[in-house]
Amino acid sequence: EGARGVGGLRARGGPTWGLGAGGGMGIERPPRQSPALSLSRALAAVRGPCSAGKRLREKGGLAAPLLERRPENLPGQCGPRPGEIPKEEGTCFRFLCFAGKEITLLMQTLNTLSTPEEKLAALCKKYAELLEEHRNSQKQMKLLQKKQSQLVQEKDHLRGEHSKAVLARSKLESLCRELQRHNRSLKEEGVQRAREEEEKRKEVTSHFQVTLNDIQLQMEQHNERNSKLRQENMELAERLKKLIEQYELREEVRRPARPTPPPGPLPFPSQDRADVPTCLSPLR
C-alpha cells in the first residue's frame, strides 16, 4: 500500500512515462482505485487511437478526408499518386501501430505476472529501458544535429568557394578571349609586316638587279670601246711606223756622198746655217 502507483500514461503521439512528484519512477496511484484498474484504463487510453485508426482505415472512413485534402485535388498543384496516403498521416499511422504492438506485447507480459507488485516492477523496468533509450536517442540526435550544422556550414563554404571559382573562371575566360583577340591582332599585324617586308625586299632585289644589269651593260660597252680604241691605236701605230720608215728611206736617198777630209785638225765650224743638212733640221 505504501508503494507509488503507476500512471500518467498519455497518448500524445505515442506512450510516454513521466516521473512522479517525489522524483521516483511512475506516478502516484489515484485514490480509491486499484493499480490494475488504473493500468487498464491508461493502456486503453494509449491503445485507443491506434485501434480507432485501424478501424477507420479498414472501413474507409479515414480515406475520404485524406483524399479531399490531397494536393492533386487543389488547382495548380501536384501530389501523391491515387490511393497513396500522405507522408505525415502515414508516419502517424505507422507510429500508432508500432505503439499498439508494443502495448500489446507489454500487456501479454503483464498478464503472465500474478501480483501487482511484479507488474509494477516490470513497468518500472520497461520505463527505465525506454528512458535510457530516449536519452540515447536525444544524444544521438544532438550529435546528428551538430554534424548537420557542420555539414551545412561546409556546404555554405563549398558553395561560396564554388561561386568564387565560377567568378574566377568567368574572369579567366574573359582574359583568354582578350588574349586570343590580342594574339589574333598581333598575328595579323605580323603577317602584314611580313608581306610589306617581302614587297620591299622584292623591290630592292629588282632595283639591284636592274642596276647590276646596267653596270654589266656599261662594262660591256666600255670593253667594246676599249677594244675599238686599242684597234685604232694599233692601226695608228702601224701607220706611224710605216711613215717613219718611208721618211728614213727618203732621207737616205736625198743625202749626197761627201769626200773624206784630209787628216789634220778640224776647222772651226764657222759655216753658215745653210750648210747644215736639212735632214738634221727639226721636224715641222
UniProtKB/TrEMBL annotation:
Chain segments carrying region Disordered: 14-34, 186-207, 251-284
Gene Ontology terms, MF aspect: syntaxin binding
Extent of Gly residues compositional bias: 14-26
Taxonomy, superkingdom: Eukaryota
Biased composition (Pro residues): 258-268
Feature: compositional bias, Basic and acidic residues: 186-205
Short name of any one Pfam family annotated for the protein: Taxilin
Protein name as catalogued: Taxilin alpha
Organism: Ursus americanus (American black bear)
Biological classification of the source: Eukaryota, Metazoa, Chordata, Craniata, Vertebrata
Gene: TXLNA
